[in-house]
Here is the input.
Amino acid sequence: MLKSAKIPLMDTATDNTKTVRKVLCVEDEFFISELYSRALTRGGYQVEVVTDGLKGLAMAMTNDYDIILLDIMVPNMTGIDILRHLREEKADLRAKIIITTNLDQGKENRTDIEKHADGYIIKAEITPRQLVEFLDNIK
Amino acid sequence: MKYFKSFKRGVQLHLGLILLINNLLLVAIYIVGAQLLDLPSSMLAIILAATALLSMLIITFVSTNYLSKPMDTIGRAVNYVSPDKSDYAAPVLDDLRLGRELVAELSREVYSIASSVKNSPLISSAPNENVLMNSLSIPIIMMDKSQKITFINTAASNFIGKAATEIINKNMYDVFDFSFSSDDTYDSWLNQTRTNSAVASKSWSHVRLPLADPTGLKQIDMTASYSLDSATGTEVTLTLYDRTLDYSKDDASISFVAIAVHELRNPVTLLRGYIDVFEEELSGKLNVELADFMIKMQVAAGQLSTFINNILNVSRVENDKLSLELSEQKWPDIIQGAINGISMRAKVHNKIIEFVAPTNLPTVGVDSVSIYEVLSNLLDNAIKYSGDNAGKIVVSTLLTKDGLVETKIQDFGVGISSNVLPKLFEKFYRNHRTQTSVGGTGLGLFLSKAIVNAHGGNIWVDSKEGQGSTFGFTVLPYVMVANKLKPGNDGITRNAHGWIKNHSLYRR
Here is the structure.
């Protein structure tokens, strides 16, 4: 049921059909990035996966994405630090930044910078298709 | 003790003299009796023995009196200065024959010790009471009838990390944010004591006291003593015993729970993810039975995720780390959302959830995420305990005459036996101890109670074994929440506690 709903959504999201939204997924857990990139690709997104925090920051700085999915616990640089760097150093940052983690300590324990993310997702509470739905609603 | 030697010599002389006289007497009797009167030897022996016995008694009596007199006099001197024995007269030394100098010296010593003690901070009259209090290492706080702090000792100001000057004259409730493990709080005790007693005291254990960093959360035992009319104006004296180290062992196990939960979430993410892929790919290709299995698998994985969330939230409640962000919400929408969220599970178990929302409900002030969890937990229980024969679950909501929004979730299943009912909202391991099987309800209900209470509402259960259960809870209309709470800098936030706050949020 959801599957059929996805296809028209992709086509009607914008009038301009050539805009395929680009997603950067910073995620070191291979199984999860596999699931997410599969679902997002099927949902009409163009997905790039990176497993290393520093590399993720470099890609986010140099390329233009619509959405960046940031896991917090990734090697070499945490998702929080990537978020801080992007906010401070990339003046033309257009991407919506979504924290995706299972390490949530509760809203009140989030750092200020985390609170300034555009979205916050607990991975265990959402299926890949629900993630696609969530991103579809982020404009 | 220069007079002790002369006292000793006096005793020696005294005893020696008496014994000498005694012996001379016996010799004289013998000489007179044997030589001059020529008495028969048997008679002489009797006379001598009788004289010896008599003189022994006289000597014992006289010398005991003599020798114990100094001791008696010193005793009188000690009693004379002792504070609890004021009816003793001062001793008179004039009639002392033996050891007068020694007794005089010792008595002077007693008097000088007594006068120095009187002036010392250890024992003193009222004005110096605080010096004594400050010398104690146990935190002590005194309050007057308006619960204003009138005294705080050094140990107490060190304990809470604030100078006494910052605290004196402040209201106790503004300084100390005690949380208790039951409804039996300091506040309720004081109110009761004021109406019933002139003098009373009480102890609490496992009291929580959050303090400013770096001290953090303290866990204490506490005693309070009440006096209706004390001369100093002190109504209540609080004594605190720091038990943070002992009680934080419980906390260590809680943070272990938090870590374990985080570890559990990763495999659950994958499980749900791959099931999601299967469902997407296979939904049209599976036969009815396998498709049914697929849905059951999906429901089970979702339930696992909810259960893990519950565990984490319980540990947050226990650590005072679950906070609510209240906002204005349409209550029927939230209920409907929770029903939709659990609909797949209801379907798997062949349950139909009936819900008709009244139209006159005001908007409510709730934390939509937390209150959703309450509804989910109660609906989940209703599904779990409906049994095979009861297919209906009824959700209803209404505005009570007190102006609260009440919601009931009723099932027609197995019900709950009356001996389990009182413990139903406690944490699950307590129920295990009672050897009563109540399945996994405890955790969800404990959490639901904490969340509902933090919202300012109540939760209850009404159940008969074999006839089903009705769980009900109230939340507050938004206007009530908005009015009662001062709009702070950070909006309307509240903490959810497994502990009962000393005073209600709505300060009197």
Remarks:
- Chain B touches chain A through 25 residues (CB under 8 Å).
- The domain at 322-501 of chain B is CATH 3.30.565.10 (Heat Shock Protein 90).
- The first helix of chain B runs from residue 2 to 36.
